[in-house]
Amino acid sequence: MVLSVSERTFTQEVLESPIPVLVNFEAPWCGLCRIIHPLLLQFQAQCGDEIKLVGVNADQNFKLSTTYRLKSLPTLLLIQNGTVRHRLEGFRGREDLRLALEDIKASYSNYAKIYNTPKTVDLECRSA
């Protein structure tokens, strides 16, 4: 289950989160948003407590949409310590998103290696 955040809860749930947060800006009318949802749930399940996944309805949270300069939906932002570390937009389907999530996990694993955390492989946040 993806935690739904709004302008009211964004600071607490995302910007002040002790772990990186993958923010999925979406809208009910967005077909690609619905298509990628199962892949995001899989990503969340594999990452466990290492990365938090939240959803933001871009139509209902116009200030956030403007603040993060959304050009298309879905747009995914990986935010860590209040800073956008990765921005994913303009992907055309599940395979594009899968490859982008692999890149995020690879860079996250490089960051995590500093703290002696196991390296991530493929689509898994924890090494097998």
List the helices and strands and how they pair.
Elements: E1 3-4, H1 10-15, E2 21-26, H2 31-47, E3 52-57, H3 62-67, E4 75-80, E5 83-88, H4 94-113
Parallel strand pairs: 1-3, 2-3
Antiparallel strand pairs: 2-4, 4-5
Organism: Nostoc punctiforme (strain ATCC 29133 / PCC 73102)
Domain Thioredoxin: 1-106
Pfam families: Thioredoxin (PF00085)
Structural notes for this entry:
This protein has one domain (3-113): Glutaredoxin (3-Layer(aba) Sandwich). The chain is of the alpha/beta class and 128 residues long. Helix 2 runs parallel beside helix 4 (94-113). The chain has helices at residues 10-15, 31-47, 62-67, 94-113; strands at residues 3-4, 21-26, 52-57, 75-80, 83-88. Helices cover 38% and strands 20% of the residues. It is an enzyme of class 5 (isomerase). Its EC number is 5.3.4.1. It comes from Nostoc punctiforme (strain ATCC 29133 / PCC 73102).
Mean of the pLDDT scores? 84
Distance between the termini: 24 Å
Total domain units: 1
- The helix fraction, in percent, is 25-40%
Supply the CATH architecture.
3-Layer(aba) Sandwich
Lateral arrangement of strands in the main beta sheet: 1-3-2-4-5
Main sheet overview: 5 strands, mixed
Give the uncertain stretches in residue-range form: 113-124
Strand content: 15-25%
